[in-house]
Amino acid sequence: MSAVLLIEQALNGLQFGVMLFLMAAGLTLIFGVMGLINLAHGSLYMIGAFAAAWVAGLTGSFLLALAASLAAAAVAGVLIELLVIRRLYDRDHLDQVLATFALILILSEGTRWVFGSFPLYLDTPDWLSGTLRLPFGIDYSRYRLAMIGAGLVIAAALFAMISKTRLGIRIRAGENDREMIAALGVNISALYTLVFALGAALAGLAGALIGAIQSVQVGMGEPVLILAFVVIVIGGIGSIKGAFVGALLVGLTDTLGRALLPTFFATFMEPAAANSVGASLASMAIYILMAGVLIFRPRGLFGATA
Amino acid sequence: MTRERLLNAALMAALLLFPLYAWASDEPFLITLTTRAVILAIAGVGLNIALGFGGLVSFGHALFFGLGGYAMGILAYHAQTYTTLTDWPLTLQGTKSMPVIWIIATLTSALAALAVGALSLRTTGVYFIMITLAFSQMFYYFAISWPTYGGEDGLSIYVRNGFPGLNTMDPIQFFALCYGLLALILFFTARLARSNFGLMLGAARQNEARVAAIGQRPYRLYLIAFTLSGAITGLAGALFADLNRFVSPVMFSWQTSGEIMVFVILGGVGRVFGPVAGAALFILLEHSLGGLSEYWHIYLGAILLGTVLFARGGLFGLLAGRGQPHD
Lengths: 306, 327
Hints:
- The complex is a heterodimer of chains A (306) and B (327).
- Chain A has one domain.
- In chain A, 75% of the residues lie in helices and 3% in strands.
- Chain A contains eleven helices and two strands, in the order ααααββααααααα.
- Chain A has a two-stranded antiparallel sheet with strand order 1-2.
- In chain A, helix 1 packs antiparallel against helix 10 and helix 2 runs antiparallel to helix 3.
- Chain B is globular and about 55 Å long.
- Chain B starts with a helix and ends in a 7-residue tail after the last helix.
- At the A-B interface, helix 4, helix 9 and helix 11 of A face helix 5, helix 10 and helix 12 of B.
């Protein structure tokens, strides 16, 4: 495998990882602050993608579509939080898993009912189509580069928000001791709704951005949801830094594994067997990574050690 | 007789009488439908040992369900193609005999559950939920990308496997087999719940530190419960594959894990007969709502959400009053 191909695959892995971070950041914040496992996070991703595809179809504007994805997912997030999620904070994990599993059923079938079973398509805008020539003669998709850039900017903004702003201080305080910050006069239920809406908006944006390179369809959220869970478990649940490192690790492992493992096995096996062994192992790689991390660090890489 | 026992008896009687009625009125589809409920109930009873008795929220029981299914699929596939399973170190043949398949499916799933449990039980809480999910996803993707046994398309078995003295292709006879197994497993589970081991397991669920203080290792209790749980769910997987005469990676999918959990919750967590009620209700809903609307999952979701939010003990909690609290 040539170096150029390798760099391209690494960039693909980076792009995948950055998008996973957008999903994982919301999940890990929601778990860290509210102690809630939200399986319905993938449905918010789907809602974002559908809103973007619908608005893009009406207006033709990609930026409006992105704004719509943020708004639709945030509004859906607020509604879900007020109607259902709020009742789950003091329940055990089993109840949370089941109630949010039920939400997936409702939201997926609801979306199918409104938009039908056929996938929608969201086109990348003209100003981001085609490729860009990078150093060493690598041609790489402008849109994917823009995704990496946007993801990194959002990650930086999120870090700044958490570490510098008053809202960030409250979020961190809420992770540590919710009774105490409620006693200090912070409206804790408004904070919870806000954090949930923020996580939902990020998931919706990720859905819209990825919707432009894949098809927008019911059920698109669940595979990404599972990957986002892998990410936050590897990183340590509740840690934004962990989510970032975990997302890049998962993105790169998955993409590079698929590219490299079949070639690696071909060095000492017959081509056909090498291909099937390599492909099987590559598709399992991130789960093996996760199991390995948990066996040696049962609370993830950046999880609290208590 | 307590209300719970009355309910148990009514449930088992209904599950027996309904297919007999269907048999008398020549409705083989309804027999098959009930057989499906019975098999899924076995899977739920298996999960309930870990989830209800041990408080271990496994989100990866599809792994054992799928392994049982593939154990049946692979053995029957080699038997129907007249190929050997392995040639080295010793020659192994496939088989079409149900009892042999059941034993192999149960043992394979038990071994897998022992290994997965030994690793997963090092973690707790959400991490346990997620690591069990990760293991089942590993097998899901492995089954999809491994071409020998059909890959993504799955494996079809042309003729249902045989049981000595019975014609298993006859729906009512296959139903009787599955019902008998369910009754046997329920008897075993009820005994287990009242045994020293079962009581200790319940104690560990409620307070690990105290159980450790009287000299029992919670890890060991959990591991035994998880292994038994996986073995029973694996047997259900083999039966399910035999019912459909088809196995596919879907049996390993996380939605399958979710559905098995749904049976346990709908019925009532920690009740021996809970998953039976849950699976029967699930099949009933699927059949009646599925006819009502193409989008029946919306209603299923709403019912599930209502159960979790407002009827925490499930069907048994509603009808038989409070039993053991689950925590």
